[in-house]
Amino acid sequence: MNARTSSGVCAFAIEKFQQVDEFGFFPAKFSCHVNGELFYRTEIEVVSINKPIPRETLQVAIPPMTPFVEEHSGKFGIWGDGKPLRYFSTNEEARQWDQNRKQNALKLRNGTNNGVALRYFFALLIFSCVLIYFAVQRRK
User: I want to staple 1 with a disulfide (CB 3.0 to 4.6 A). Which of 12, 28, 35, 77 is the partner?
Assistant: First the structure.
């Protein structure tokens, strides 16, 4: 089965089936490949068919920083904490923003943002000096 996406034609591949009661087998895991590359992969657990299911089963959570496209408006966005974090006018603008975010995170992790590290070091040094001062004063 194929479907058109903003990136091209998505070729769906069913990777796993699940047997559900007397109704037979249903696709449980499938993936979508665009231009031969994995676009996404998802797994579905069929809880029941034609039977009531608990309300919490239908809760969907989208992880923060997940890119999305609003099909009705054509807007590109990045998902935040339970709501859209930011919208972009083009997919390229969204990718550029995400790339910059990742590069900044790497700089912080690798310590290349020395200004911030230096401030934390001096704050810790001052805090330590204050603790030592109070410890010495208490002994007197």
Answer: 12
